Amino acid sequence: MNPSSLNLLTNPLKGTEVSTVVEIFTLLTLLSFAPLVLMTVTSFTRIVVVLSFLRQALGTQQSPSNQIVIALSLFISFHVMAPVWQKIESEAVTPYYNRQIPPSAALQRAWEPLREFLLKHTRKADLALFVKNPDGNEIELTQVPATSLIPAFVISELKTAFQMAFMIYIPFLILDLVVASILMSMGMMFLPPVLVSLPFKLVLFVLVDGWNLLVGSLIRSFA
């Protein structure tokens, strides 16, 4: 090995070891907040809520399991958020690792694509709930702080998810009512209607290619 390379390994350049420690500490801090970030500034909340409601509407108890629902929600979220991540990587992460911008500028550049995504999918009524302008004028969107934008976005996502869940429940609820009426007319009052309607729900869901329709609707809702 070249003596100069060996000397660089044993005695790193002054300041580089401090920079490396700071980067490792920052990375560990970000990883600890990763679940919180995933649930609050991505499409994960809407997707996992809708899929959970679908399972309840079908009446399949724990099938698909929580692990499958969360895993599917994660990968759909990665697909939806891919353009945002690519923009963050090209505008913030890569210049920072190339030592072209300081950490503060990197954070600001990383926040801009996320802010655009959040504002696009946040209702003005939900945003007004957290943003109070003392002048009484309409506040500019560029001035909305993250502490107000993020909870407004989460509320908007929950509202949208419940609206989609309502549309999912309607056909299955009608099927349950039809089966219950038939069982009552036949005098089979002690037979649970859910037990009889479950196979018909599954057949209906498969025939209409329900997974394709639902996942496609979720992805298009973020377009």
**Main beta sheet strand tally, sense and closure:** none
What is the H/E string? HHHHHHHHHH
Q: What is the molecular shape?
A: elongated
Termini distance?
54 Å
The helix content, as a percent range, equals over 70%
Structural class: mainly alpha
Beta-strand content: under 5%
Provide a count of the helices.
Answer: 10
Uncertain runs are 1-18
Q: For the residues shown, what is the average pLDDT? A: 82
Tally the beta strands: 0
Task: From the alpha carbons, calculate the radius of gyration and give it in angstroms.
Answer: 25 Å
Description:
The protein is mostly helical and 223 residues long. Helix content is 76%, strand content 0%. The chain contains ten helices and no strands. Helix 4 runs parallel beside helix 8, helix 7 packs across helix 8 and helix 8 packs across helix 9. The longest helix is centred in the C-terminal third of the chain and has 40 residues. The radius of gyration is 25 Å and the shape is elongated. The N terminus is likely disordered.
